[in-house]
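Entry for 4'-deoxy-4'-aminopyridoxal-5'-phosphate complex. Fields follow.
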Amino acid sequence: VCWSEHGGWHRPRVQPYGPIALDPAASVLHYGQEIFEGLKAYRHADGSIWSFRPDANARRMQASARRMALPELPEEYFIESLRQLVAVDGDWVPTAPETSLYLRPFMFAKEAFLGVRPAHKVAYYVIASPAGAYFPGGVSPVSIWLSTEYSRAGKGGTGAAKTGGNYAASLVAQAEAAEHGCQQVLFLDSVEGRYLEELGGMNIVLVKRDGTLVTPQSASILPGITRDSVLHLAEDRGHTVERRQVSIDEWREGVANGDIVEAFACGTAAVITPIGMISARDFTIGSADAEPGELTMSLREELTDIQYGRRPDPHDWMLRLDA
Ligand code: PMP
């Protein structure tokens, strides 16, 4: 779909995958005026195709659009774009366990203009790509690297928007994590460098011995839909959930004195992933060969069962895309 200041949203169509022609002065290429989303289509046992809380992705994309001075795509257009793509590419939704069709809606400024101002011409696309199981050999804990030199987002910045620049800002830190044998990077707040923010592409939740779940509250992290869902499921089970500032020292001391018994990362790609070890320049927390936590794994099972239609969906989170 295209958008222009005078014409609004127009020209919806499904086209074969291929390159997009852009003017060399298209403002996205210079100023990064761009946003995206990520969600999955799941095949249920009867062959039907569903997505998980696409309304939440649509609303988050609207919030990202407001922050990035892009037009808000109406929720019904967002959902319709997924339906139309699945109508054409539905055969691509794989059937093997834990596989899915990854959907990547994105919007960018295509107006050719070298001045710095919001563009008046925008394009919205969705690409679809079959995704294998994230953990083909069974879920294994991730190791994470604590970045102290870099922050992902500052106060008043774009941290809560799903925009490419946030990911660009995290690439060197992600590379540093890989050099230290870690799969993900952990960012702290940019003001005091003490409070947990999130990982490169996932939110964080800690589990205390008494069953309380604690997750960072911050205006500069991406409000993850997986995290919101998992915390709802935990609350349904009677767990207390604390959304507040959590410092790295609280995590470190909590693990040392047995008060924090599990930690997991969550996001669309890996669903829920146990965190085994945190490595920092001068200390480590946990161990790389830690067993996945019990609550972590049971919440993971409950959420994936809902997504794959293996158990009831009490919150009406699933939306059928092929009917
Ligand atoms: N934080 C970041 C930086 C992410 O890229 C993602 C993945 N979209 C998440 C958190 C988790 O969000 P969600 O559960 O909506 O996938």
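NOTE: The mean pLDDT is 95.
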